[in-house]
Amino acid sequence: MSTIHVIPGLCHTGGLNQSIPKANSIAGSIYSSHPDNQERINYLNESIQFEFDQPNALQPSEQFEKTRARMVELNVKLRLRARQYQMALKLLDEAEDYYQQQDKITYYRGEVYRLMADNPEAAAKEHAWLQERRVREEDKNLYKQKIAEHRTKARDLFLTIQESENAPKEMFRGLGMICKQQGEDEKAKLYLQAYLDQPTPPKDRLYIQHQLEQLN
Q1: Which of 9, 42, 138, 153 is 20 to 30 Å from 206 at the Cα level?
Q2: Residue 53 has pLDDT above 90, yes or no
């Protein structure tokens, strides 16, 4: 079969990635009302064989790569919105082999750790969910103890791309929110204002303006 490239989390050369967590289909998960993962795997593998098992299969086009990159980014955003931090990190790890926008990967990694620090109980819940068990008090305590570590990781990641022209402007928001949490009010104001000073006003500008008002 010719080499093909598809969106991470869906499939790789030779068919679908079989390492989908069983927790994705357990009762009570966000996927419990969806088709069984094995059904998805079988269906898509058959579709791949039918569509792409050709000797003259083409290499990915530039448009395909752009679309795949966009899908990766949207998928990571969905994971973050659902507070699925470990799963977002896994997506970023998979994307790193081919995704050309390294600054974006670094930004989203930082955002994962920042949000884990802000939502330790949600991080603990995901940790237990991936192990197919109920969340325990020790899980919650573990992620609460990691708040400072996760904020430091996020800050370090954001700082590595601070001077890059290709870094997402949301990086300034992340740095500003971390500095605010750590009591560095002046730095927080500078970063949050830098985020607001984009040519196109961000959609969450009212929220960020409120954060600045709290700092003044």
Answers
A1: 153
A2: no
> Which pTM does this prediction carry?
0.74
Task: State the CB neighbour count (10 A cutoff) for residue 187.
Answer: 15
Element (H, E) at 35: none
C-alpha to C-alpha distance for 193 and 188, rounded to whole angstroms: 8
Please state the rounded mean pLDDT for residues 30-45. 60
Token digits of residue 16: 């679908």
Q: Is 182 exposed, middle or buried (0-12, 13-18, 19+ CB in 10 A)?
A: middle
Q: Please, are residues 130 and 146 in contact by the beta-carbon 8 Å criterion?
A: no
pLDDT digits (tens, 9 = 90+) for 87-99: 999 999 988 877 7
DSSP 8-state code for residue 148 = H
Domains (range + CATH), the chain: 1-59 (no CATH), 60-215 (1.25.40.10)
Contacts of 154 (CB under 8 A, 6+ apart): 110, 111, 112, 113, 114, 117, 174, 178
